[in-house]
Design a protein that fits this description.
There is one protein chain. This protein has two domains: about 150 residues, Ribosomal Protein L4, Chain: A, CATH 3.40.1370; about 50 residues, no CATH class. Helix content is about 35%, strand content about 15%. The chain is built from seven helices and six strands; from the N terminus they run ββαααβαβαβαβα. The protein has a six-stranded mixed beta sheet with strand order 2-1-3-6-4-5. Helix 2 packs across helix 3. The protein is elongated.
Length: about 210
C-alpha cells in the first residue's frame, strides 16, 4: 500500500497513513484520463452559437425587380445570402457538444489521476482542518505552513468554516469528496485533503 505523511495545520509531520491501492495505487491509464477531461470540457460548452439562414431573416418576401429586361441579374429576394442583410448560407445553430463516458471509465480515470498525484508526492494529507471562525487569513496561513500555492482542497462534508475560509484565495479551489473530478485534480499543482476526506474517498470509490 502507498504510504503518505500526515501533517497538522502548522505544517509539521505528525504521522503517516496507508492509502488504499485500489484507488491510490492503480495503473495510470492516460487515454481514459484524456477522455475524461475532453468529456468534462465538452459537457461544459454552452453550444449557443446561432446565425439566421435566409428563411429566418425578416423581409424580402417580394421579388425586388422583374425577371427580365432590367439589365440586372435575376433576383428572387433581398434576403438571399449575396445581399447585404441577407441570411447566412450554412448558418451555425445551437448544438449539444456533450458525450457520455461510462461510470467505470470515469472511476478509472479518477483513480489514475489520484494515483499520479500520490506518485508525484503532490498529495498532502492533513490530520484535520478546523477553524472556530470563518477567516481567509487562517486558511492562507495553513497553505503557507504547507508551502503550497496552487491547490485543490478536498474537505469532508460539514466543514463549513474551512470551506468558506478558502473560497476567496486565488489559485485555490475547494471541493467535497463527492464533487472531485479529473480536470480539477490535473489543473491544480497539489491536492490537499484531510484524513476524514481520504476515508470518504476510499469508502465511495473503492
Amino acid at each position: 500500500m502507498a504510504n503518505v505523511s500526515v501533517y497538522n495545520i502548522e505544517g509539521k509531520e505528525v504521522g503517516s497513513m496507508e492509502l488504499n491501492d485500489a484507488i491510490f495505487g492503480v495503473e495510470v491509464n492516460d487515454h481514459l484520463v484524456h477522455m475524461a477531461v475532453v468529456s468534462q470540457l465538452a459537457n461544459n460548452r454552452q453550444g449557443t452559437q446561432k446565425a439566421k439562414t435566409r428563411s429566418e431573416v425578416s423581409g424580402g418576401g417580394r421579388k425586388p425587380w422583374r425577371q427580365k429586361g432590367t439589365g440586372h441579374a435575376r433576383q428572387g429576394s433581398t434576403r438571399s445570402p449575396q445581399w447585404t442583410g441577407g441570411g447566412v448560407v450554412f448558418a451555425p445553430t445551437p448544438r449539444d457538444y456533450s458525450f457520455k463516458l461510462n461510470k467505470k471509465e470515469k472511476r478509472a480515470a479518477l483513480k489514475s489521476v489520484l494515483t499520479s498525484k500520490v506518485e508525484e508526492k503532490k498529495f498532502i494529507v492533513v490530520d484535520e482542518i478546523k477553524f472556530d471562525e470563518i477567516k481567509t487569513k487562517n486558511f492562507q496561513n495553513v497553505l503557507n505552513n504547507l508551502e503550497v500555492s496552487k491547490a485543490l482542497v478536498v474537505l469532508e462534508d460539514g466543514n463549513k468554516n474551512a470551506e468558506i475560509s478558502a473560497r476567496n484565495i486565488a489559485d485555490v479551489k475547494v471541493a467535497r469528496t463527492n464533487t472531485i473530478n479529473v480536470y480539477d485534480i490535473l489543473k491544480y499543482n497539489t491536492v490537499i485533503t484531510t484524513k476524514a476526506a481520504v476515508a470518504n474517498i476510499e469508502e465511495v470509490y473503492a
